[in-house]
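User: I'm writing a tutorial on reading structure tokens. Could you give me a worked example: one chain, its sequence, then its tokens, then a sentence or two explaining what the tokens reveal?
Assistant: Sure. Here is the example chain.
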Amino acid sequence: KIVIPLSLVKDVLNLYHNSPLVCHPGISKTLRKIKKIYFWPKMSSHIVNFIKSCNSCLQRKAHQPKRLAPLQKVPPPYGPFEKIACDVVGPLPLTQDGIRYLVTIVDHFTKWLEAVPVSSVSSKYIAIVLLNFISRFGAPKTLITDRGSNLISEGMKIIYKSLGIDKINVIPYRPQSNGAIEIKHKTIANFLCHIVNSTH
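And here are its predicted structure tokens:
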């Protein structure tokens, strides 16, 4: 292993935690990766203190809702783009272009994910994103979202009905009910949130 002098510890921590390529991983993941290559005295405590004091991570955690609702099981898909999940991420820190939200769509079968930046999460904007996705991949048999009013408005219901989409509502603030799909949502949200924070 490479022994790091204390004068370079901060550089290593920035590389493994603050770099855009790593997207602010947690304490365990950061510690595990650094330990594979480097060593310095009191490494663990340095990493813990560094991450606990990370402003970008603290800001991100402050906007995460409590997840107390019960789980709801969603049956597995049988083919590509048969079952998709749509979610809204934000509000994120405002960009120079006026973007504050992401509309994300994930295919449950292939795990293909698209994240579209938008300035508003009204039903109109979500409908545009969803219809653009459908124009390229076809209408899904099932669409999974939470119960946000912008996702279950009368206008959205008309779209679902006209395209023959079975709409399933999962309980908000419990991403486990959407399984690996919500993990992808969380990953991309964290990444973009940290990127935006770093430009302010």
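What the tokens reveal: Confidence is low (pLDDT under 50) at residues 65-71. The domain at 83-195 is CATH 3.30.420.10 (Nucleotidyltransferase; domain 5).
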